[in-house]
Specification:
The complex is a heterodimer. Chain A is mostly helical. Chain A folds into two domains: about 15-50, no CATH class; about 55-250, Up-down Bundle (Cytochrome Bc1 Complex, Chain C). Chain A is about 65% helix and about 0% strand. Chain A has eleven helices and one strand, in the order αααβαααααααα. By secondary structure, chain B is mainly alpha-helical. Chain B has helices at about 1-10, 15-40, 55-80, 105-110, 115-135, 150-175, 205, 210-235, 240-245, 250-275, and one strand spanning about 50-55. Chain B has a domain at about 1-195. Chain B has ten helices and one strand, in the order H-H-E-H-H-H-H-H-H-H-H. The radius of gyration of chain B is 24 Å and the shape is flat. The chains are: A mainly alpha, B mainly alpha. At the A-B interface, helix 3, strand 1, helix 4, helix 5 and helix 6 of A face helix 2, strand 1, helix 3, helix 5 and helix 6 of B. Strand 1 of chain A pairs antiparallel with strand 1 of chain B.
Chain lengths: ~260, ~290
């Protein structure tokens, strides 16, 4: 019986179909460990081998990875939420209510999206703090630090644009307060210093952001598109750059 | 006490409560390693520089970390519901109107500076300053390990900016600001009709200057004098300081400008809270 099973296993793993999918076996050798990383599209961002100190939680705090995980969670839950949400003044709030009361697991979905977003803001700040404390921005990683700063801003902006979408009082006034700053932009804002006289509240930089003179339905649409399409796209590209540069700049920083 | 308890219970403030525990924990964790490095003179993990296979050693750690984080997120999402208030109403302004928690340090700056500085110039300088850090920090030591002794200035300035000016102001904005953006201590009731005497005066007024033009020049002199502290220090110390000679003039100008801009916030806070100073420099175009 055992012999038979072994023969069957060999038959399957030696078949053309199996070999077309799995390029290497599962033997306990260094060569296989290396292939496991090199021949896997999801794992190949990693180098095959890494300094032992980089495995320790006390050094990395895992915060970069947690930030990426939170991004993935918000992406998956966000796509699911988009099925139930219409970014218009009439429906936005009602759709959120429907999510909470009618749609199976809708509340859980919304909770996960919101708390993962908050979690991402925390983890990205702690990631920056760790990178600073270990001096990991120093030569040759200067440029990757700059990319990281932009990604930090993008995280704030993603969170901020998403904050408006429930279209309730909390969302509305938080975004009103936040975007009121843009009035005071020097030169480009109608209340800012050095603004030309033909800059009014109907054509200044805040108007461009809101699509109106106050936060309204057109703001909702703008923030929705920024939140769901434009900013995640930029964030993904910059994340790819960020991870690639970690490898190219000599891997994760360490003593020596 | 009641409004404070309400604030603590607000679901959106959970992250700040988490930060209250996370920041001290990670400070302790990094300080422990920095102290070990500084005491022995060898980076604390220098002995662990040999290579190991990513699969399985790193992938296993990532997997375990992801499971733990997803567990925390799952429990958090089941236990606490995301907030949903009344439908938005442009005619009904809540008091106080607060930005999301991660912007409250910026909103807090609005108390001390006009919107164009607090909302545009200072955030712009924070971003530019953060990006500039690797190019102005020429200290080759402390790369890839925790240390305090080898880069006290860099770590001191960053911790002051991050922990005091960002995190603490965020917490003040979340928990201590009530109606009218007035400070309400946790044990106080929120009184929307609280009368706050507006006794703030401009710095020039305090010095007995009543004439607008003189006040304008006086304010300009104070601000220019403040930023001139940088170059003055440079020429005073240049000969005796090897560090300044290595840093060079251009890098030094950027460092001192960013540093003085950052310190302008706590200085303005002290001026406001201790001396009721409204503006340092009043001009026809802008006020600082």
């Amino acid at each position: 019986m055992n012999e038979e099973r072994k023969g069957l296993k060999e038959k399957i793993t030696n078949s053309d179909i199996w070999k077309s999918i799995f390029r290497h076996g599962y033997e306990d050798t260094g060569r296989r460990y290396t292939l496991q990383v090199l021949q896997n599209v999801w794992l190949h961002l990693h180098p095959p081998r890494i300094s032992r100190h980089a495995l320790h939680f006390r050094f990395t705090w895992c915060m970069g990875g947690i930030t990426f995980l939170m991004f993935l969670v918000t992406a998956v839950t966000g796509v699911l939420l988009m099925f139930y949400y219409r970014p218009t003044g009439e429906y936005a709030f009602l759709d959120i209510q429907a999510l909470e009361f009618d749609i199976p697991f809708g509340m859980l979905l919304r909770n996960m999206h919101r708390w993962a977003a908050h979690g991402m803001v925390i983890s990205v700040m702690l990631h920056m703090f760790r990178v600073f404390l270990t001096g990991s921005y120093k030569k040759p990683r200067e440029f990757n630090w700059a990319v990281g700063v932009i990604l930090l801003l993008i995280t704030f902006f993603l969170s901020f644009t998403g904050y408006l979408l429930p279209w309730d009082q909390l969302a509305y006034w938080a975004v009103t307060v936040g975007t009121n700053m843009a009035r005071a932009t020097p030169v480009l804002g109608h209340e800012g210093p050095f603004a030309p006289t033909d800059i009014t509240q109907a054509n200044d930089v805040r108007f461009a952001l809101l699509g109106g003179t106050i936060v309204g339905p057109s703001t909702l649409l703008r923030f929705y598109i920024l939140h769901c399409v434009a900013v995640p796209l930029v964030a993904s590209l910059l994340m790819a750059l960020h991870f690639w540069r970690v490898r190219k700049d000599g891997g994760i920083s360490g003593p020596l | 006490m009641e409004p404070f308890l309400e604030l603590i219970k607000k679901p959106d403030n959970v992250p700040i409560l988490a930060i209250l525990f996370l920041i001290p924990f990670f400070l302790w964790l990094s300080y422990k390693q920095a102290r070990q490095t500084d005491r022995t003179g060898v980076p604390s993990d220098a002995a662990l520089n040999d290579k190991v296979y990513v699969w399985p050693y790193l992938c296993r750690n990532e997997f375990i970390c992801a499971i733990i984080i997803m567990l925390i997120l799952g429990v958090w999402s089941i236990m606490i519901d995301a907030p949903l208030e009344e439908p938005s109403d442009p005619a009904k302004t809540p008091n106080p109107s607060k930005a999301p928690w991660y912007f409250l340090a910026l909103q807090e700056m609005l108390v001390y500076f006009d919107p164009w500085i607090a909302g545009v110039v200072l955030p712009g300088l924070i971003i530019a300053g953060l990006i500039a850090i690797p190019y102005i920090d020429i200290n080759p030591k402390g790369k890839g390990y925790y240390t305090l002794k080898e880069r006290p200035f860099a770590i001191g300035v960053f911790c002051f900016g991050f922990l005091i000016l960002w995190i603490v102001l965020m917490i003040v904005g979340t928990f201590l600001r009530g109606p009218g953006w007035n400070i309400f201590w946790p044990w106080e009731e929120w009184d929307p009709h609280r009368v706050v005497p507006l006794t703030n005066v401009n710095l020039s007024y305090l010095f007995g200057i009543r004439d607008d033009l003189t006040a304008n020049f006086f304010g300009f002199a104070v601000v220019a004098g403040y930023f001139a502290l940088g170059p003055i220090f440079y020429f005073w110390k240049y000969k005796s300081s090897k560090f300044l000679q290595q840093l060079g003039l251009i890098r030094y100008v950027i460092v001192s400008f960013l540093f003085l801009s950052m310190m302008a916030l706590p200085i303005k806070m002290i001026l406001r809270l201790a001396l009721n100073i409204k503006y340092v420099w009043v001009s026809p175009w802008f006020n600082i």
